[in-house]
Amino acid sequence: MAETRCISCGAAPLAPILHLGTTPLANALLTKEQIGKPEPRFPLELRFCATCSLVQITEKVPPEQMFREYAYFSSFSDTIVSQAGARSRRTARSSRSSTRSTRRASGSGSD
Ligand SMILES: [Zn+2]
Fold it and tell me: If you measure from the C-alpha of residue 54 to the centroid of ligand 1, how many angstroms do you get, rounded to a whole number?
């Protein structure tokens, strides 16, 4: 059943942002025997809460269906973990640099 209230603050209504129809579960890979047969599909809709700014999906998939054979492993790829770390460091440096520039421009910074 679709959520009609914000899952964070309980406000309603939620503003529709994007509706992608119904989709199979991500990473729900099919066996050879399952190909060509109907598979479970779930509504995939994003909505925005104007009260707390949370963007959220409206449909909850039962955990026993979602994670029965879940083929996603966070932190599994050393390459992806390394790239994410490098990106985080660049973003942090850029953010610090931007903050210093803003302070200089406003005359409120000490450096
Ligand atoms: Zn909210």
Answer: 6
Long-range own/partner contacts, residues 22-30 (CB < 8 A, 24 or more apart): 25/61, 25/65, 25/66, 26/72, 27/70, 27/71, 27/72, 28/69, 28/71, 29/69, 29/71
Query: Which residues, by Cβ under 5 Å, contact ligand 1, an ion?
Result: 6, 8-9, 11, 49, 51-52, 54
Per-residue pLDDT tens, the chain, 111 aa: give them.
678 899 999 999 999 999 999 999 887 888 899 999 999 899 999 999 999 999 999 998 888 888 877 777 767 788 888 999 999 999 999 988 877 776 777 665 444
- Give distance in angstroms: CA of 47 to centre of ligand 1: 10
Residue pair 11/41 in contact by the 8 Å Cβ criterion: no
CA of 61 to the centre of ligand 1 (A): 20
